[in-house]
Specification:
Blueprint: E1 5-10, H1 39-47, E2 56-61, H2 65-78, E3 87-90, H3 96-111, E4 118-123, E5 127-128, H4 131-146, E6 150-155, E7 166-170, H5 173-178, E8 183-189, H6 194-203, E9 206-216, H7 217-227, H8 229-235, H9 249-252, H10 260-265, E10 271-275, E11 280-281, H11 286-292, E12 301-303, E13 306-309, E14 315-318, E15 323-326, E16 331-335, E17 340-344, H12 351-360, E18 371-374, E19 377-385, E20 388-395, E21 403-405, E22 409-417, E23 420-424, E24 427-431, E25 436-439, E26 445-448, E27 455-463, E28 472-475
Parallel strand pairs: 1-2, 1-4, 2-3, 6-10, 12-14, 13-15, 14-16
Antiparallel strand pairs: 4-9, 5-11, 6-9, 7-8, 7-9, 8-10, 16-17, 18-19, 19-20, 20-27, 21-28, 22-25, 22-27, 23-24, 23-26
Helix pairs in contact: 7-8
Length: about 475
């Protein structure tokens, strides 16, 4: 593998159309969705066929960084790597053009002045079932990028779909001499209505826009300077350390909120398209999840604690409660601990409207699950009321919560399973199942698990402010202090 090749994983999306499983603080790329690995991890593993794993960079929003770090740590251990995989964190979302620009500058810095790296950009939340074909298309893309083209990867449409952008293509001698199947990208089209989508497909000239790109750093930099002057100008003020870089909020907020398609791809004359036949699905809706899932003899996809009678062509997904259904047709039912979605399967694209409505109402169910994952494990909110909140906390082996204190609440911990090491001020306490400890307001403390088995505790909080903002971290092995 060439040291000049880098891959960039865009891992900052919210996955709003897959609510209630996908939430703002734990979006779809961090979910397994009935797969062996999460979508983010599958993306990383797919890329190592063509890229050195040390040259795979992730960029994500700072609110997703803990989840991304945990999943990268699992991959790091799988490959016995001692060096952490690199993550760039954005303080706020500014769409794909600023994210790619920032990452391009960072990759150029770590590659060195003498190298003009070729960079492949991929979303973190797509499903690809044929990794061998994907790898072959990447190799073709590298050849085109080496010759100065910005490469996009197009999916041959398999149905009329109004949920994707389309790319119109035409033949080009120079491009086809480099790779016979490649075409010139003549025009980018926004998500069309049904009739227009049918016209596109009937013409045979259009591909779905996969959102994957490849280019030489110098070529994309020059095209940004030409077509995205504001981004290129603002980039000069950004400084990125070589370790785990975080973009400064005051500077990043000045960047325009614009996609790479609008900023560069739709304007550039250097776009080549490589057809990608790899079982691609962007998993952008529950209907898309249904399409790729195993079904019973009635066409139903049923997961979890479900009793169904006489339903057809439906998706019924339970994560905690018993869900019972009778006589459904073409319906999606998704149950989580705190929300239930029921909708017609053909209208799952509109789930985003529910997500946005919850956001407008300041309802936190668009943002978090009752179960929240952290680098050390997870916690589940069991009950909350006036002046109290009860959680179940699970800490992974060798995991530890930050050394911290709270200004507005006290806590009472009871060990349910495993063995816990509790730091309380200057004291250390080893607690076994059934044992408990009290932590006063502003008392420095930490819950740790240096042992080989998970530990589970019940936490009862009391106070006038009971939220995650009332944590003052003093030390933290995950870099959050």
């Amino acid at each position: 593998m060439s040291k000049d090749l880098y891959a960039l994983i865009l891992a900052g999306g919210s996955g709003s159309r897959l609510w209630p499983m996908s939430r703002e603080l734990y979006p779809k790329q961090l979910l397994k969705l009935n797969q062996e690995n999460t979508l983010f991890q599958s993306t990383f593993l797919r890329l190592i066929e063509n890229f050195d794993d040390k040259n795979i960079i992730s960029i994500t929003n700072i609110k997703h960084e803990p989840g991304v770090k945990v999943q990268l740590k699992e991959l790091q251990e799988k490959f016995c790597r001692t060096e952490d995989y690199k993550i760039i964190t954005e303080p706020i979302g500014r769409n794909t053009a600023p994210a790619i620009a920032i990452s391009l500058k960072y990759i150029k810095n770590i590659a060195g002045r003498k190298i003009d790296p070729i960079i492949m950009v991929v979303p973190s939340d797509h499903l690809i079932t044929n990794n061998k074909n994907f790898s072959r298309s990447v190799e073709a893309g590298i050849k085109l990028a080496q010759e100065g083209f910005i490469v996009t990867f197009g999916i041959k449409p398999t149905k009329i779909d109004t949920g994707f952008g389309y790319i119109k293509t035409q033949k080009n001698k120079k491009i086809s001499e480099i790779f016979s199947e490649a075409l010139k990208a003549a025009e980018f089209k926004e998500k069309p209505d049904y009739t227009t989508a049918q016209e596109y497909i009937d013409s045979g000239k259009y591909f779905w826009n996969s959102g994957m790109f490849m280019f030489k750093a110098s070529i994309m930099e020059a095209e940004m300077k030409k077509y995205a002057k504001e981004i290129h100008s603002l980039l000069a003020s950004i400084e990125l350390q070589l370790g785990q870089p975080t973009v400064e909020y005051q500077k990043f907020k000045e960047f325009p909120d614009i996609s790479i398609d609008y900023a560069v791809m739709e304007k550039s004359k250097k776009i080549a398209l490589v057809p990608l036949d790899c079982g691609w699905n962007d998993l952008g809706s529950w209907e898309a999840i249904y399409d790729i899932s195993e079904k019973d003899h009635n066409g139903n996809c049923i997961t979890g604690n479900v009793i169904d009678i006489n339903s057809q062509n439906s998706m019924i997904y339970s994560t905690s409660k018993l869900v019972t259904t009778v006589g459904l047709k073409n319906t999606v039912v998704i149950e989580t601990e705190d929300a239930v979605l029921v909708c017609d399967k053909s209208q799952t694209q509109d789930v985003k409207k529910i997500y946005n409505e919850l956001k407008e109402r300041n309802d936190d169910s668009h943002k978090v699950h009752k179960t929240v994952f952290r680098p050390w494990g997870y916690y589940t909110v069991i009950q909350e009321g006036q002046g109290f909140l009860t959680k179940c906390i699970m800490v992974n082996p060798k995991g530890k919560l930050s050394l911290q204190l709270h200004h507005h609440r006290s806590e009472h911990w009871v060990v349910l399973e495993g063995k816990a090491l509790v730091i309380k001020g200057e004291e250390k306490h080893e607690l076994l199942p059934g044992e408990h400890i009290d932590l006063a307001i502003e008392e420095i403390h930490s819950l740790q698990n240096p042992y080989d088995e998970p530990v589970k505790i019940l936490e009862v909080q009391r106070g006038d402010i009971l939220d995650e903002n009332d944590i003052e971290r003093l030390e933290d092995i995950y870099g959050r202090a």
